[in-house]
């Protein structure tokens, strides 16, 4: 097979790495890719949102399967365009991608079909949101309805903060048209857990659990980011919780989509909150998570291309997903100043250290080559340093050890990724 992956981040590097292991894959392309992906795939200089050029490339090079990584092209209908061109594609169509593309759509779906989630209200006018906030219970959560690079969620502790948040989203257009409509949601407390799944329109197969760390600084302080690190599995996500979620969240979601006449084929990412009342659904994503993918796929035993094809062909029920009985931790190396202002083009040293080390990975999130063919920084999140271990403690130790092999100017990372695993009883040390 010839396979094309759309995207150029850490998620796509992990997908490319896993896809390259499939014996059915003869040639791998990535558009646009990055300096890390270039080691295992031929990178093509086509932008993520340039679907027409991607389709022309796929036809010219007789691509057998295209995998769409990021949310933006999916929500814009890239999968529909590939299918209409007679090309085989993995990723939900535009209608199904609304599960991520519109918070109000997904919340209404949860409410209609009794999927446990936080109480919420939706607003199209800032004035109405301001009025609602006058009597709403604090703290409260504001969400931009549309895509916002994973950063369109504001947790507001006071009424003043909440009003400022509405202003930023709806009036100042901090995230452009994504904030034209907002969802105002009850604040829930508990552990957050991410669960990825394959879906073929009828069957859902759930992967192993992971936990992300969204805030930029240690102790979950600072601004929201695309994710500063992850670990897998989550020790807080017990078998009882998994069984509850299967019965009340995962299966009902697939049935709800079917009942609405929506065929979902691809990845559904469930963002869960483990509350005192039981697991509740925070949000859906319609693609692999980043950086959750970097800890989930290294633990996956299956041929990922077989899983992709089973989703497309509607025979996912014939796939038994299996994961190693181990653990993985990913620590994101970012550029100082992320997620706001940061420098690019800084040489990255130490990458060869990962080539001969089993169980250690440097997944490139924001990198490219300079005129001297050196790998340099090209984004806020630069690398996802991932390591395996027999348990979470060992995997965490290995990952932080491996972060020392890499150097670049203004290198920044959180030093407490996976700190919660120090005490599995649920109390942080």
TrEMBL record:
InterPro entries, per the entry: ATP-grasp (IPR011761), ATP_grasp_subdomain_1 (IPR013815), PreATP-grasp_dom_sf (IPR016185), PRibGlycinamid_synth_ATP-grasp (IPR020561), PRibGlycinamide_synth (IPR000115), PRibGlycinamide_synth_C-dom (IPR020560), PRibGlycinamide_synth_C_sf (IPR037123), PRibGlycinamide_synth_CS (IPR020559)
GO BP terms in the entry: 'de novo' IMP biosynthetic process; purine nucleobase biosynthetic process
Domain annotation ATP-grasp: ranges: 107-313
Catalyzed chemical reaction(s): 5-phospho-beta-D-ribosylamine + glycine + ATP = N(1)-(5-phospho-beta-D-ribosyl)glycinamide + ADP + phosphate + H(+)
GO molecular function, one term: metal ion binding
Pathway noted in the entry: Purine metabolism; IMP biosynthesis via de novo pathway; N(1)-(5-phospho-D-ribosyl)glycinamide from 5-phospho-alpha-D-ribose 1-diphosphate: step 2/2
Keyword field: ATP-binding, Ligase, Manganese, Metal-binding, Nucleotide-binding, Purine biosynthesis
Main EC class the enzyme belongs to: ligase
Cofactor(s) for this UniProt protein: Mg(2+); Mn(2+)
Domain of life of the native organism: Bacteria
Transmembrane segments: none
EC number(s) reported in the record: 6.3.4.13
Entry keyword annotation includes Nucleus: no
Family, as annotated: Belongs to the GARS family.
Protein name (database record): Phosphoribosylamine--glycine ligase
Biological source species: Lacrimispora algidixylanolytica
Lineage, broadest ranks: Bacteria, Bacillati, Bacillota, Clostridia, Lachnospirales
């Amino acid at each position: 097979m010839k396979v094309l992956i759309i995207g150029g981040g850490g998620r796509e590097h992990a997908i490319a790495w896993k896809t390259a292991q499939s014996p059915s894959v003869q040639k791998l392309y990535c558009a646009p890719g990055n300096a890390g992906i270039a080691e295992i795939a031929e990178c093509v200089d086509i932008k993520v949102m340039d679907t027409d050029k991607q389709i022309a490339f796929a036809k010219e090079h007789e691509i057998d399967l295209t995998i769409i990584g990021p949310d933006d092209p999916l929500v814009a209908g890239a999968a529909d365009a590939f299918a209409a061109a007679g090309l085989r594609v993995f990723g939900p169509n535009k209608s199904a991608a609304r599960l991520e593309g519109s918070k109000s759509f997904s919340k209404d779906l949860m409410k209609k079909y009794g999927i446990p989630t936080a109480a919420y209200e939706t607003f199209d006018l800032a004035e109405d949101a301001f009025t609602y906030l006058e009597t709403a219970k604090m703290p409260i959560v504001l969400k931009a309805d549309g895509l916002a690079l994973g950063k369109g969620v504001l947790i507001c502790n006071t009424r003043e903060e909440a009003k400022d948040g509405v202003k930023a989203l709806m009036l100042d257009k901090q995230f452009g048209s994504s904030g034209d409509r907002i969802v105002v949601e009850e604040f829930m407390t508990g552990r957050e857990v991410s669960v990825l799944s394959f879906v073929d329109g009828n069957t859902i197969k759930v992967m192993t659990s992971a936990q992300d760390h969204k805030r930029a600084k240690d102790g979950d302080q600072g601004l929201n980011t695309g994710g500063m690190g992850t670990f897998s599995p989550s020790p807080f996500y017990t078998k009882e919780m998994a069984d509850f979620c299967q019965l009340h969240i995962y299966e009902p979601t697939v049935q709800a989509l079917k009942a609405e006449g929506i065929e979902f084929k691809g990845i559904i990412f469930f963002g869960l909150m483990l509350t005192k009342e039981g697991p509740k659904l925070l949000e859906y994503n319609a693609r692999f998570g980043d950086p959750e993918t970097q800890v989930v796929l290294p633990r996956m035993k299956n041929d990922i291309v077989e899983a992709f094809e089973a989703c497309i062909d509607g025979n996912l029920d014939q796939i038994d997903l299996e994961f190693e009985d181990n653990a993985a931790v990913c620590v994101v190396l970012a550029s100082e100043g992320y997620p706001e202002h940061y420098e690019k083009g800084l040489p990255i040293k130490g990458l060869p250290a990962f080539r001969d080390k089993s169980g250690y990975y440097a997944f490139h999130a924001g990198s490219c080559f300079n005129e001297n063919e050196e790998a340099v920084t090209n984004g806020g999140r630069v690398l996802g340093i991932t390591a395996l271990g027999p348990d979470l403690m060992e995997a965490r130790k290995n990952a932080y050890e491996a972060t020392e092999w890499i150097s670049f100017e203004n290198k920044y990372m959180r030093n407490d990724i996976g700190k919660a695993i120090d005490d599995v009883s649920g109390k942080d040390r």
